[in-house]
Structure formats: C-alpha cells, structure tokens
Automatic annotation (TrEMBL):
This is Coproporphyrinogen III oxidase. GO terms for biological process: heme biosynthetic process. Involved in coproporphyrin-dependent heme b biosynthesis. Catalyzes the oxidation of coproporphyrinogen III to coproporphyrin III. The keyword Transcription does not apply. The lineage of its organism: Bacteria, Bacillati, Actinomycetota, Actinomycetes, Streptosporangiales. SUPFAM superfamilies: FAD-linked reductases, C-terminal domain, FAD/NAD(P)-binding domain.
C-alpha cells in the first residue's frame, strides 16, 4: 500500500491490556471504506458511519435485463495506479476487464461525428484534424485558428475554463468540444469550472506558451512517448460483475478484520473531547455518543462543513462554498434488431446547445465485452443491447423535476431520433444522484488548501473524498489513503509520547 506503512501497527497499553486506537470514518462510500481498510491495516479499530441505507455511495449496481449493471461510476482510469493497487490488494485482480476498442463520438450540428484526433479534454491539438471532424462550423474552425497567430494570453490567477479557452479558440470550441467533456466528468459548466482544477495539464502551457493548440499537441506527444515506454494496455478498466463489487469486497475486508460498517446512521455532531473526539450519531430517537481517537470525514463537503462548524469554523466556511450538481442515469435494454444500424463506437457526448435532454450515452454492452457475454447467457434467443444515458448538468435542476417515467421517455425520444431506434426499450431503470458531483469552480484548489490547513491544526482529524483532489476513482482512493496515512502518523506519535486511547464507546 503506497504511503500508509503497511505492516506497522499502532498499539496502546491501557491498564496492562493492549488497546487499538479507535478511528471513526464518517461516510461509507468508496473513499470512506478505503480509508477504513487502510487504517485497519496499520492497527486501528475502525467504525464506519454511513447515513444511507447501504454503503458504497455512487458505486452501486442492480439488475437490468437479468444482468448486474452499474448505476453510478462504471470504470477506473488505469493511468493512475491507486485504484488498481486497491483492486489487487482486495484479491480482485482476476476480475479486471477492459473495454472494447470502440472510441466515443460526439453529437454536434445534428450528426454523430468523431472527435478530432489529438485533442486534450476537447481542446484541439491540430487545425487539420479539427476541420476534418466537422464538429465545428467553418466559422468556428477559422476562429480556432487564430490561436496559432495571436500573441500569448497571460493568466496570473485561476480563471474559468471557458474564459481562457474561449479567448484563445472561440466559443464553438468551448461549447461543442470542451463543455461536453467537462459535463461528462463534473456535470459542470465551462464558464464556472476552474482551469487549474479541471484542466491542470493545460495550466503550465497557458502560462508559458503562446499557442494553446501547439501546447496541446506537445502534451499529447509527451503522453504518447510515455505510453510507449510503459506497459501497453487500455486506458480504462472495470470489474466483471460491475464496479460496485469493489464495495462488497471492501465491506467484507473491513468487517472480517473486526471493523464495523453501520448504515442508516447519520452523524449529528462532532466535538473535540480531550485528545480525542466525541461523535453523536444515529437516527432520530436512537442517537448515541461514540468516542474516537481520530476521525476521517469522508462525506460530501456540505456535511463535512456542518460537522466542522463548531470546532473548525475556518474549514467549514471553505467547504460550504463547494457546490454540487445533481444528475440521473437512465439504463435502457433494447432488442438489437430495433436499431436502424448496429451502434458505432462506445457511445457519444451531447453539447448542451444541441437542445437535447441527454448529455452522454454509453452503449454499455458494446463498450464492455463482459456485459455482452452476460446478456447472451441471459438471453440466448434474442440479442440485447444495454444503453446508459446521463441527464443533468449544474443549472439544469428543472429537467430533473420530471418523474422517473418522464425522464426515461425523454431519453428514449432522444435516442430514437439520434440513433434510429424504432421501438421502445424492453426494460428501463432510472437512478437519481441528488447533489452527486462536486463542482470544482474557480479558486477550488486554494479553497481546499485553506480548509486542509485549518483541519491540520486539529491533530486526529482528516478529510477525504471526491470534493478534494479529483472526482475519479483513483483520485478518491488516493485521497483516502493519504487521510489514513496522516492519522496513522498522528496516532503513532501519540503512542511514542505515552498518550492513551479514547474512552470506550
């Protein structure tokens, strides 16, 4: 385990008996369960308190057309090692599987089109590829070309993504290429999202290079060179049976090691109690106090802010400023014969200005061969195609006021028009993620740095989760691992100075 000191145990002796320090983890999503797993490895006794009826947060699956299908996050970025290390650590390496080599496309100007080759999160790296793609109008392409001849645009502080890229390449590049990519990751808007936080690869080039397009081309060339030197392989992966099985494995590992994972247990308050902490948790009328030597807040930023308001008000003020976007995932099962033509590619993104309800579509059973195999086993006499539609961006809350049936009907109508699907789906599932994605708005990195500085003044307290260092699974695993490492260091130092454990619950 990177950075957390595997094999080292922190043990206190109280009254001649060996006692493990008790750590409470608030939040039982991927980040909280990973932090719990890492803390148990280094000798802590851990209790995970989750307010929802089930653990896992946005990692969840349920059957559609007789096979388990993820209703939240569905893939792991393999270019970062943290999630793959966790998968291996949990003994799930033999279940790793990769997508079929079918690239995603873009619905732009009334047609499905290929992304221009050499782009970086939608920012084009070459004028010829951009023109050939047909994603932009000729006017938009000529406007993007100005980047190659204009003087440098100097930026000294964080700015919205749309501001910098719009100045360099024009609004069509922002609206038709960059915003759909950012919408898929954050459900956010380019005129609000932070350039530093959302497109960190571009920031150094933005501050040192004249042409953004030339800088993107160089970045892509460097990435390609590194990929050639590294072990070859797909960029994404998942687990057979669904990525949500990662949660099952984490819960099993934590509980088998003596940890507790309590669901339907909201945390009411957090107070400092000597060298430790006092947590009040439980449903109304059944609250109880829990003593802890250390606490990990692995809950959404607004909840962390509420719990920190008394003891760490400086951090609470920063975290209260982090907004969230809601979204819905519509999973549809179609008969393959109802498509006008077999789906091409793994799916497509839809710019907001196209006026569609859906913002992204994944042909799940095309993208993931394991799902296609499972569907063939479940339906040997009828080829079935699973389609996943994402709906909802920040500022589009009105769309999500529709009922589940209405949302599904809107998605079906868009698919019928874009993909030529002649008949309704044979099965559908609607999953809503209320306030599901944190918004990395301008100043996000400085905001998080101030919050962490305030929290660091209170040893035995740590933050982790999607609101801090990235919304992807590897980033969440890394954030949780770092929180566990920080608390392990604090607890070890207490042992070295002869401090005792918190009182029993």
């Amino acid at each position: 385990m990177a950075g957390c000191g595997r094999g080292h145990e922190t043990i206190w002796k109280a009254g001649g008996m060996e006692t493990k320090p008790h750590v409470v983890v608030v939040g039982g999503g991927l980040s909280g369960l990973t932090a719990a797993h890492r803390l148990i490895e280094t000798g802590s006794r851990v209790t995970v308190l989750e307010s929802a009826p089930r653990p896992g947060g946005k990692l969840h699956s349920s059957p559609v057309a007789g096979v388990p299908v993820d209703s939240g996050a569905e893939s792991i970025l393999t270019r970062r090692p943290e999630a793959l290390e966790l998968v291996a650590d949990l003994g799930l390496g033999d279940r790793l599987t990769h997508p079929a080599p079918a690239p995603a496309r873009l619905y732009s100007r009334g047609a499905l089109r290929d992304f221009p080759s050499g782009h970086l999160m939608g920012v084009p790296g070459g004028l010829t590829a951009l023109a050939r793609s047909g994603v932009l109008s000729w006017t938009g392409t000529l406007r993007a070309a100005r980047d190659l001849v204009w003087p440098a645009t100097t930026i000294h502080a964080d700015v919205p993504v749309a501001t910098y890229i719009g100045v360099r390449m024009g609004s069509e590049v922002v609206d038709r290429l960059v915003e759909p990519m950012l919408g898929g990751v954050y459900a956010g808007r380019a005129d609000r999202l932070s350039l530093e936080a959302a497109l960190p690869q571009i920031v150094p080039a933005a501050r040192t290079r004249r042409s953004l397009m030339a800088a993107v081309r160089e970045i892509k060339e460097e990435q390609a060179a590194k990929a050639r030197d590294a072990a070859p392989g797909p960029v994404f992966a998942t687990l057979r049976g669904g990525l949500a099985t990662l949660i099952d494995a984490l819960v099993d590992r934590v509980t088998a090691a003596g940890g507790a994972v309590e669901t339907s247990t909201p945390v009411r308050e957090l107070r400092r109690d000597g060298a430790g902490w006092r947590i009040v948790a439980g449903p109304p009328g059944a609250e109880r106090a829990v003593a802890a030597d250390a606490v990990v807040l692995a809950c959404p930023a607004p909840e962390a802010a509420r719990l920190l308001r008394v003891e760490v008000p400086e951090a609470a003020r920063e975290l209260e400023r982090i907004g969230y976007a809601s979204m819905a995932v519509i999973t549809l099962a179609y008969r393959a014969r109802d498509f006008a033509a077999p789906p091409k590619g793994s799916g497509f993104l839809v710019p907001a200005l196209e006026g569609r309800t859906i913002k992204a579509v994944t042909f799940s059973s095309v993208k993931w061969p394991w799902l296609a195999e499972a569907l063939r086993a479940a339906h040997p006499d009828e080829e079935t195609v699973l389609v996943r539609c994402s709906i909802g961006r920040v500022g589009e809350e009105e769309t999500l006021q529709h009922s589940d049936e209405e949302l599904a009907a809107l998605a079906v109508a868009d698919l019928a028009d874009i993909c030529g699907i002649g008949r309704p789906p044979v099965e559908q599932r609607v999953t809503r993620w209320q306030a599901g994605l944190p918004q990395y708005t301008v100043g996000h990195e400085a905001r998080i740095a101030r919050a962490r500085t305030a929290v660091a003044a209170h040893p035995g307290l740590a933050l982790c989760g999607a609101a801090y260092d990235g919304v992807g699974i590897p980033a969440c695993v890394a954030s949780a691992t770092e929180a566990a490492r920080t608390l392990t260091t604090v607890l070890t130092e207490r042992v070295a100075h002869g401090a005792g454990p918190a009182l029993s619950d």
